[in-house]
Amino acid sequence: HMIQTYDGGDYVGNPALIEAFCTNAVDTYTWLADMGFPWKPNPVIIQGSLWQRSQASSEHKSGVGFINVITDTIAKENLPVQYIYEVPASGLTTEDGRVTGATGVGVDGKQYTFLAGKGVILATGGFGANVEMRMAYNTKWPNLDESVGCTNSPATTGDGIVMAQAVGANLVGMEMIQLLPLTGVN
Question: Using H for helix, E for strand and C for coil, what is the string for 88-106?
Fold first, then answer.
């Protein structure tokens, strides 16, 4: 898996991060299985793989299944987690050069500010569905304009990247644009 990940990223990935990603995959698989996530009994081959190295759900076709099993566990174990829905993040807050939280406006028009206790993890996906960003960062392909299709979710528009850039994030690898999904095309 590490070799395929490094090869698939045109040999520009950080080997230490790739190793951490791949070696921690087994613990993550077990953690999700222990919460009841339904895995297929055998690994599967995915787009770009040379051999069967991926695990897939026996019931879910997208990452929604991961979210469902985690939220179900939070509810069953009565963990102190609060959900705020329909509040897209619009910016990051900073203090002394550190990101301390996020802001957003709910569909109800109310302004929200979320402050972190220990740190902020920005997990907003890429920008494969954002033609303007594809054109701005593309250095690898002859053309990535609107004539080039994308099977990512229409929500992969780079909003998190724009927010991070606004607070001084050091963007790297922006030319590594993914237009294919991590799951099968529906």
Answer: CEEEEEEECCEEEEEEEEC
